[in-house]
Design a protein that fits this description.
Blueprint (H helix, E strand, L loop, with lengths): L5 H15 L6 E6 L1 H10 L2 E5 L26 H6 L12 E7 L5 H7 L2 E6 L9 E4 L4 H11 L8 H4 L5 H18 L10 E7 L21 E3 L8 E6 L1 E2 L5 H8 L4 H14 L2 E2 L3 E6 L5 H14 L6 E4 L8
Parallel strand pairs: 11-12
Antiparallel strand pairs: 1-4, 2-3, 2-8, 3-6, 4-11, 5-6, 7-8, 9-10
Helix pairs in contact: 1-7
Length: about 325
């Protein structure tokens, strides 16, 4: 139709995708070791690992067995088309994850991940393409969640009705049934972690828009780090709070006419040169360990020296002698 506005429809799609993210308030907690803690504070970055390289070997691949939607008739016609297609649990190579928990004092997680539990303001971790999803561990819970998404008012945006081929509408439906479903469903053996995922997509291959690399310039750049377990360069992306964020228009104009390789290098350098603000850290809990009192004191000094002087630091009260 002549009055179809692709940019408005893209905005409607982004609003819809933003709406399906879980509304998580208060603090969420990331468990890490001393090296990880120091890195987060000094760089003002959270490194989000490619989903193929995390501890849970079923991460984002927890499959749904059987046709759990067979008794459901969705209002969304695309949901009814896609609902039983197992291929929706497909490639995850472009997904990047950082894991958090609502539990701030978990002996299991202190022992498994390290002595530092960092509390972040959940609301301030949601930005642009970075979304938070509260994990569920049972098929019936993901079924209830998708039924709820079917009734969102954002599906009725008039822009979708003006899209002749309906591609954006289909993409939004596919996003919920594939990306978001995988983002929320996790292996039952990890249920005690009460996980909340910070999740983002960054495509290494730009095949969909080979001639328009600016379509990808809003995605975070991909970096690599050494890993003794895999003995390969492990891909990751960075979450940070830019002091002067670039608009989509600024980014697109900067890379317009450039090749894919040139665009990636330009965006990566812009990220590296971006002045970063402090991460939204609210509290640090020091796990049970030898010399815990001294560790609390040293952590307070370290935070002060890196601009986090107002962050509360407390010892865990778990009665465990430590490692």
């Amino acid at each position: 139709m002549s009055d179809f506005n692709r940019y408005k429809c893209l905005e409607a799609m982004r609003n819809l995708i933003d709406e399906i993210q879980d509304s998580i308030t208060g603090a969420i907690y990331h468990y890490t070791n001393e090296k990880g803690f120091k890195g987060i504070i000094k760089t003002k970055e959270i490194w989000m690992t490619n989903a193929l390289f995390v501890n849970d070997t079923t991460e984002l691949r927890a499959s749904i067995k059987g046709k759990i939607f067979k008794d459901v008739e969705f209002e969304n016609k695309e949901f009814n088309i896609f609902k039983n297609e197992q291929k929706l649990l497909g490639d995850i190579e472009d997904y990047y994850i950082a894991s958090f928990s609502k539990d701030s004092n978990s002996l299991y997680q202190f022992c498994l991940y390290g002595d530092y539990c960092i509390g972040f303001d959940a609301k301030k971790l949601r930005k642009n393409r970075f979304g938070l999803y509260r994990c569920v561990y049972k098929e019936n819970d993901i079924k209830k969640w998708i039924i709820k998404q079917d009734k969102l008012k954002e599906w009725k945006d008039e822009c979708f009705n003006k899209d002749d081929d309906g591609e954006l509408y289909k993409s939004a439906a596919f996003f919920i049934l594939k990306f978001a479903k995988q983002a929320k469903l996790k292996n039952k053996y990890y249920e005690s972690e009460k996980e909340i995922r910070l999740l983002v997509v960054s495509n290494s291959s730009w095949n969909c828009y080979e001639n328009s690399p600016e379509m990808y310039c809003n995605q975070p750049s991909i970096y690599f780090r050494d890993n003794d377990l895999f003995n390969v360069p492990v891909p990751y992306v960075k979450f940070f709070i830019p002091k002067e964020p670039k608009t989509s228009e600024e980014l697109e104009n900067t890379v317009k006419g450039k090749s894919q390789a040139e665009t990636k290098e330009i965006i990566r350098k812009m990220e590296e040169n971006q002045e970063k603000g402090p991460l939204p850290i609210k509290k640090i809990i020091i796990g049970p360990m030898k010399n815990q009192k001294e560790a609390v004191f040293a952590t307070k000094i370290f935070l002060h020296e890196h601009g986090y002087g107002n962050v509360e630091v407390i010892p865990s009260d778990i009665p465990f002698r430590g490692k």
